Amino acid sequence: MPSRRRRLAGVPLQRMKPVTDALAATFRRPFKEQAAAFRLRLGNLVPTAAWDDLDGAAHDRTFAVAGATKADLLADLAAAVDKAIVEGTGFEAFKDDFRAIVLRRGWTGESSEKGRNWRMRTIYRTNMRTSYMAGRWAQLRDGNFPFLVYRHGGSLEPRLQHLSWDGLILPSSHGFWLIAFPQNGFGCSCNVFGARSIAGAIRRGGKPGVKLRDGWDAPLAETGAPAGIDEGWGHAPGASVADLVQAMAKKTVNWPYSIARAYLDDFPAVQQDALSSAYRNLPSLMTDLRRYAKAVQEGRAVQPVRTMGRLTQAHRQRVNDLLGSDLENYHFTLDAPAVRHILSGHGAASEALRGQIPISAETYALLPRILNQPDVIEAAGETRAGLPVVRFSRRIGAVTYTVAMEIRGKKRRMLAVQSMWGRRASDGSPT
After folding, report:
1. Nearest 10 degrees: CA dihedral of 227, 232, 236, 240?
2. Are 338 and 416 within 8 A, CB to CB?
3. Is 60:239 a contact under the CB 8 Å cutoff?
4. Which helix (H) or strand (E) segment is 353 a member of?
5. CA–CA dist 53, 66 (Å, integer)
6. Which residues contact 298 (CB under 8 A, 6 or more apart)?
7. Phi, psi (rounded to 5 degrees) for 393
8. What's the pLDDT band for 12 if we cut at 50, 70, 90?
9. At 420, phi and psi to the nearest 5?
10. Average pLDDT of 392-418?
11. pLDDT range class, residue 165, cuts 50, 70, 90
12. Phi first, then psi: what are they for 200, rounded to 5°?
């Protein structure tokens, strides 16, 4: 009987390169098509017991993790993978998020630390590669390249069939690509490049002497797929949604904040809430906010605006009750001017004279907790510019933190941090 890991991974294990700095750097450059391809899957979170519960192209519109059968766990994992892909935060940040999710949900999927680490890497790498290659498929199709070139990815223990395809040049219309466009199995790191001519294909590493053998597409009895294609991988990732990916990507401005909030508006409300709340629970987001504030404090360049996730239905309802404004598709946001204002106005030791604690860059890590589960949401007048203000308050330990958020118009759809302060509870006792 095959081992649990074999049943979950589906193929004899391929020894992969470690998640190196070079690989991480590649994945940290997310692009519009990759983000669109992955987020098409987030609209359909499907609990599964094993990796092969879904067939082929079904993965183009579905997010699933083998053994993750509970909705809240699946939403947590989806949010962690989405952040790694869309914000390019890398494997180390994903590790922190994954371990926090496992601790919070009591789920491992494996009985040993080694097994859990293997699963964590598999979830990360597989989703990174499939979304990356789905984005590449959309790009190459949109580029109208007459030729495509298959390049081996350099695994430490390569599949011999993939090595035999290294440098293969074929017309982009050839049926090979619908079956063997990478990823062709767990751990496969092969790639494909487009070319306008045979000469261009050779410049991209093409080798005219490499040919497909006769009967290359004959399925093997043990896998049901041609040689070199692992069971369940006989399809081009993203091919069934390529036109939609292209259309979505063309509507998106290619800068981090725009990509980070793109493609989510059409999700069902319940799905939006689950993903948004899960996003604010990620340790990596808390770390990002702390680093963002520190960079602003030190005068370093930062993104003009960063998201802290969408408002949930409960947030919207409360604001609507207070102000009569429905903040549909609004995001919580933080920007550099707000950080500077808070650190200058509430960051000094003199805050103690007002019964408040100084706000430092470290305090910004608390923002997601305050916004996700506030004790109080209340109206608080308007800014000098006439923008409505809403305050979120939450007690954490012996301190009650308050964040003033301004509502920035229908075009921007932001509930943006304006100010923040903390006051010690009168009894001084933790909650």
Report:
1. 150
2. yes
3. yes
4. none
5. 8
6. none
7. -125, 145
8. very low
9. -160, 140
10. 95
11. very high
12. -65, -35
- Amino acid type, 253: V
* Residues forming a β-bridge with 218: none
Q: What token pair was written down for 99? A: 């371990």
The overall average pLDDT reported for the chain is 88
- Rounded Cα distance between 286 and 280, Å, is 8
Characterize the bridge pairing of strands 388-396 and 331-335: unpaired
Radius of gyration (C-alpha) of the chain in whole angstroms: 24
pLDDT at 127: 95
Calculate helix-pair angle for 283-297, 336-346, nearest 10 degrees: 70
d(CA 7, CA 2): 6
- Cβ(150)–Cβ(165) under 8 Å? yes
Q: How many CB atoms lie within 10 A of CB 121?
A: 18
Residue that the structure tokens 């030791």 belong to: 349
In tens, the pLDDT along 346-389 reads 877 666 667 788 899 999 999 999 999 999 999 999 999 999 99
Q: ω before 356 within 30° of 0 (cis)? A: no
CA nearest neighbour of 409 among 385, 374, 377: 385
Which helix (H) or strand (E) element contains residue 272?
helix 269-280
Q: Closest by alpha carbon to 76, among 265, 267, 263, 282? A: 282
Rounded-to-integer distance, Cα 16 and Cα 333, Å: 38
One-letter amino acid for residue 318 of the chain: R
d(CA 17, CA 27) in angstroms, rounded, equals 14
Alpha carbons 347 and 419: distance in angstroms, whole number: 11
